[in-house]
Amino acid sequence: MAFHVFINNSKDYVLVEEGKSILEAAKNNQISLPHSCNNGRCSKCKCKVIVGSYDMQEYSINALSETEKSDGYILTCKTYPLSDMFIQYDYQERNLSRVTSKVISIEKICIDIAVIKMKLYSNKESTFIAGQYFDFIMKNGKKRSYSIANSPSRDGFVEFHIRHLPGGLFTDYVFGMEGKCLKEKEILYLEGPLGTCDFQVNGEKPVIFLATGTGFAPIKSMMEEIIYKNINRPIYFYWGVNKPVDLYMNQLVKSWELISSNFKYVPVVYDDSFRNIWFGRIGNVYEAVMEDFKDLSSFQVYACGSSNMIKKASRDFVLRSNLPKKEFYSDEFISESDLQS
User: Looking at the domain assignment, is residue 200 inside a domain?
Assistant: First the structure.
């Protein structure tokens, strides 16, 4: 027996054979649906069921909360239809496309971070919103997600910040760990843009940007757009890193304070062994926010970076600091080591 799973109120559907997940059936039929980890850990395949019955197998609560489950959200990689279904993604499906890109430049700005700039070529419009990401499609068909680090105002060009994770399928290639290395003018294939952690340009609330490591990339994209559009809202940026050298664009962020009197930068180093050379804040970056703001009820928060930080910040900001749950926007990084743990 097979069931039809219709997507985003259109005539498009995935035919899912009994015993197959929605995502597995989509892949088998060369139908592109958002995904990354394939095992219920990353939330990239999350969508809402409008109509239909199904069975959803075990998944990580970090990928789908109990509230989301109660509201009808599923992970397609773990969902097996028991009837015909209608599902709805938060992204606008018409903008999802496979994009050919060419590497323009690769800059190793520190020992384990590369800034890659690329030119996009596409028969379809592939404009993005500040805060979104693209999936990089590997030669073996696997995908790796990276946030865009520049403003959409740079038409046709995108920037990515890639941290080397030893053993990483794509990052080892970028850093030349297997004898071969990513080079300028190389052609890569992307899919997207994807993601819903985009800046709410029409809002009026003060903003807290919260990032760990290369979670800075989408923050940079949003800040460039804010500066480009001359958006005049109070913005506080908390950037958490393990050691001071990990603040790989520290001077750029400091320059934003000179450009805008409404922007405040708070770098936070986690490892207290650097006290002899670091005289700024030390500790968990999300706790630094709560130390400075006891009440977040009037704020919007955009959190980008590690799964652990986002999980704790989303919980504590709501429960301890009165942040409205709907005002917490997140872009979570799931590494290969996370997926295997």
Answer: no
